[in-house]
Amino acid sequence: MPVFRQWSVVLFSASLFITCVLMALHPLATLDAGVRGLAIWWDVLFPSLFPFFVISELLLGFGIVHGIGALLDPLMKPLFRVPGCGGFVAAISCASGYPIGAKLTAKLWQQKLLTREEGERLVAFTTSSDPIFLIGAVSVGFFHTPSIAIVIVLSHYLGALLVGLLMRFHAPHASGTSGPAEHGQAGWREALQTMHKARLEDGRPFGEMLLDSVRSSLRLIIVVGGLVVFFSVLLESLNQSGLMQWLYNMAEVLLTNAGIPTVLSDALVGGIFEVTLGVSSAGAATDVPLAYKAAAAVFVLSWGGLSVHAQIASILNDTNLRYPPFLLARAVHAIVSPCLLLLLWKPLMGGTDTVQVFQSIWSVPLNPVSGFIAYTPLSLIIALSVLVLLALLRLFFKLLQRPE
């Protein structure tokens, strides 16, 4: 066994032991944290995710995903280098939130509709929050400002789109699966034929398919609930031990150097572990410009929290898809989305608050090194916009050259 792996096992074991000791020292706080995590799972996650889990399984069994994939193949291949069925995954994950995208991606890989590299690209940009949570829970529930919903939704999903365009360069020399579009087939007739063929290959009657879908979805939703409770207890244990205060102090130093109010350190540190905790802390922050609070919330939503990361890792464990590409994509999404929000804030929201935010971020100091750092987010957005235009042009010429 390599030395690095040996030390990682030792450190992980020591961390688990320390967590057990902290739980034993603070049993009441641990119990309350577990109950809070269970309440989040039962009241929010179970009713919102479980129906989508079941329906997605049924759609796979009936071959609808395969038919949609045949239609979307000419679009998904040039833009994201994934088969057309990835468009269905992107649409469902956008509507239902994480971890639906990873679950569907794993299913498509098991049915040999995706290669490993295509699956890694797909799961990297289809892990996003659902619009119901963004609008109802975040904008209305935590921020009490429904008007910011549009800028939060746009920045979050545009960030995911840009991550998908960047991930097309992941494993550039890897071969992909062949689709109908590669043979000049992308019509409705070919899509229906593909769907019918997939249904015949599945062969299960509807009753058996429904039972299998419920069983599989129950297993996954229980894993999701267990991870939420675990990270809720872990975070409370760290709070009780005082270790979280060290992380808060570290975040305050970074925010101070970046010219951002340090009040948001609670939201950012909490959001690294759990999404709901981070977003609620951002909404409850006082004496902070609304644009900063919204940017902190979008950072947390795009990162996903270690709880979501653990959910995705548990799903990918049954496949050969690797976790590091997903981790890199989450980090990029967490950086890009707040930049997009601050860029979109003035045209969509306006107000004097916006002027202060943009002056503090885009102002150029006399130091050329700091000036370069200040303009780095803007340069990143411009570069990503150029990539989008190039990808669209490539799609346009590809469609023109496609045989009738």
Could you characterize what this model shows?
The protein is mostly helical and about 400 residues long. It has 18 helices and no strands. Helix 3 (about 65-80) crosses helix 9 (about 190-200), helix 3 packs across helix 18 (about 370-400) and helix 8 (about 150-165) packs across helix 14. The radius of gyration is 22 Å and the shape is globular.
Write the layout of secondary structure elements.
Blueprint: H1 3-25, H2 27-61, H3 64-80, H4 85-96, H5 100-110, H6 116-125, H7 131-142, H8 149-167, H9 188-202, H10 206-241, H11 243-258, H12 265-273, H13 275-284, H14 290-303, H15 305-316, H16 323-348, H17 352-362, H18 368-401
Helix pairs in contact: 2-5, 2-10, 3-4, 3-9, 3-18, 4-5, 5-6, 6-8, 6-16, 7-8, 8-14, 8-16, 10-15, 11-12, 12-13, 12-14, 13-14, 14-16, 16-17
Number of self-contained structural domains: 1
Tell me the Rg in angstroms. 22 Å
What integer is the average pLDDT?
Answer: 79
Helix content: over 70%
Helix and strand pattern: HHHHHHHHHHHHHHHHHH
- Structural class comes to mainly alpha
Largest sheet: none
Instruction: Give the end-to-end Cα distance, rounded to a whole number of Å.
Output: 57 Å
**How many distinct helices?**
18
Strand content: under 5%
Q: What is the global morphology? A: globular
Unreliably modeled segments: 181-185, 354-382, 392-397, 399-404
Number of DSSP strands? 0
